[in-house]
Amino acid sequence: MVLLEKAERAFPGHILDKGLIQEEVFYRVPRYVVEYLLARKGGTREAVDAVRKLLEERYLGPGHEQWIKDQLLRTGRFILIDRLEVQVDLERGAYRGRIPSLGEHPVEVRPRLAEEHPGVLYGMWGTLELLYDHASRKVRLGQFIPFEAHLKDLEPFQRGRQAFEEAEWLDFLLGSVGLNPEALTPRQKLLYLARLAPLVEPNLHYLELGPRQTGKTYLLRNTSAEAFVVSGGKVSPAVLYYNQLTRRPGLIPTYEVVIFDEIAHTAWEDPSVLSILKDYMESGQFSRGGKTLAAEASLVFLGNADDPTPPVTRVLPHGLRGDTAFLDRIHGLLPGHEFPKITPDLLYRGPALVVDYLAAALRRLRPLAFSVEVSLPSGYTQRDIRAVRKWLSALLKLLYPHRAWPEERVKELFEFALELRERVYEELHRLNPDEFPKRSKAPPPRLEWKDLFALVPEPYAGLFQALKEAGLPPPHEGPEDLMEGRKVVGQSLARWGEKRLVPPGLGAYGLEVHPDTPVEAIWAYVKEEL
Question: How big is the chain by its Cα radius of gyration, in Å?
Fold first, then answer.
């Protein structure tokens, strides 16, 4: 109840009980469509009945085209909810709409619709008004209202974020995209943020290879209408980049995120597709038919892999497998085997943001620059540096859209960003060790002694002063929470690498020390980490 009250004060009119969307009928359409409708019906239990009835009446799906045509013939007008895809008819110089509920029966579409909503060229969900002209015997599209929220100003979203502590906000954010934070470890929460990163950071490209049923595609596809999924099959320059016949932009210039699902079953034999792809991933531009176009779409490559040991990229299809030029342009490799399988326990049922409102806020964050000064390891290339900075920017946008972040958290996010890029480099090294030699691990950053003295319990101040005077370098970390499952069981005193000093009673987590423990005993314990 406390969370609900806080959420409603922070984001009035944009909170929805996620337990309301568990109805079986709601799984037939994308999550953002359902939440859009529920929110506009009041977001109550009564709204569930109203939206269920609305979908039963207005979303018919394939197999009902004869009934819809019958209604059009009788009344001349029919309203439905569906996905509209506009196709260009060059022979007639016209635009035709394809609606799954109408099967292959064409719908006349006004030319300006594709300019008003470019996404209709590849499919957009919305409310459609179909009109039947008895004279011409044609069906044409009247009104089209897409299901997507628009934010004129980001400030209310940023102000709402300030009402939450960081841990609360992270859980609230994950709950908003349908994930139960109580079922996740801190590490898994961070990994899910990485999956969301392309929604807030332009031209961020990642690869995830892992087991089936972990929701690799589900999260992005059901969070934003600006994410388009290419599911296997053959990809062409006209579809991805620019169609020279119709003079229409392809998927990459149209959407914010393009997801290549089941990548092992996607054909990449066309050399022009891959060469243009590499150019785009490097520069954010591509040339096609004498035109040079710029785009900001983030590319996500997803595939199944049973074995998590490197090189996991051995499952990539012919054309991508072993291509270091392609792989080096990937900003991060997500450890797919660390994501849990989707089960009912992983689905959130509490109050959180309506997902289309969240998606609109993330869209507004996308062009903003979030950067901090960080010291990157020596030997990093410009691609490495660009990748790490993009990841750090995306994570900061998700966690701190109001730009107020603690420095110690930046350090943790920075190390996570380094890890994602290092996973790519490890694959590159295995494919071509001469061009990508093994990188030496940089020593972890250390605390200053003065900082440590301000953190340790007062009875231990003398012991740590003695360690300093004996010449021991300062530890890498000061006091840290010690976890048993999801419960904090105590706090350590300091850590050198993996060697912890802990108070009495916590010997399972490191070396137990008293204020009068001999310096020699501590030195002998931590010397392997120095």
Answer: 27
Q: Which pTM does this prediction carry?
A: 0.76
**Cis geometry, peptide bond prior to residue 311 (ω within 30 degrees of 0):** yes
State both tokens at 80.
Answer: 């439905």
**Tokens coding 8:** 């409603």
Tell me how many domains the chain contains.
Answer: 3
For the chain, percent of residues with pLDDT exceeding 70:
97
Show the domain range for 99.
64-146
Across 173-177, average pLDDT: 96
What does the pLDDT read at residue 102?
A: 87
Instruction: Determine the pLDDT at residue 463.
Output: 93
| Sequence-ordered list of residues with C-beta below 8 angstroms from that of 399, at least 6 positions apart, any chain | 166, 169, 170, 173, 193, 405, 409, 413
- Residue 151 is encoded by which pair of tokens? 């934010």
Asked if 101 and 61 count as a contact pair (C-beta separation under 8 A), the reply is yes
As a whole number of angstroms, the distance between CA 455 and CA 464 comes to 11
Other C-beta atoms within 10 Å of 440: how many?
Answer: 9
Which of 146, 162, 185 is the last residue in one of the domains?
146
Q: What is the CATH number of the domain that holds 89?
A: 2.40.50
The predicted structure's pLDDT at residue 155: 95
What is the total residue count of the chain?
Answer: 530
pLDDT of residue 248: 80
Q: How far apart are CA 368 and CA 296, in angstroms?
A: 13
- Token pair listed for 188: 């898994």
Q: Which of 445, 436, 515 is nearest to 474 (CA)?
A: 445
Is residue 416 assigned to a domain?
no
